[in-house]
Write the structure tokens for this entry.
Amino acid sequence: MARASALSKALVAAGALMALRLLSGETFVTPKQRNEAAAAMAAAMVAASAPAMAEVPTFSVFGFGSGQSDAYSQNDNPINPYSQFSDGSDTVYQAKNQPEMERRTKSLKAGLKRFEDTPGYIQTKQAQALKSNLQESNSLRQDLLYFSGAEGSPAWEKARQFVQKVGTMGVDGNSKQWKRAAEDYKEASNILAEWKSLSSFN
């Protein structure tokens, strides 16, 4: 990018020089002047082709060499509270803070309300309404896992089972298998009740 910019500047400068000579009354360019212009353009192109100095990451091989053995350690800055590599002692973002908990709780309640409205769409056989209702609660999975604790915990597994069962219900509703969709809803409701007893959501 820097090379192209320097080359374009050199060409503009050479063009401006030729235009000034033409405007000064010399309409015929003598061989000597042509040689000077060509030499100036060649010098400008050589200068533009010189590579710009750039900082590149350095690496070492098997711990030998003057570079870093880990590319990410070059950005390691535990002092900076905004750095993603900081040690976490004085970071700006604190996980599960009060505003975040309130936002997630509100979002999860709205998603569960949409889930509770599902039987009406199944009974009236409204496939498109059922699909759009489930799509509107697209953050339901993230919100459930947020309140489920560590990955692999019983609550986390129940949240995954619930989301899978809701997905199956959506597929059955879309293919108009209403009896199976009603059974999926019943099973999902039971899984949700178990999740609530295991999770930190209240």
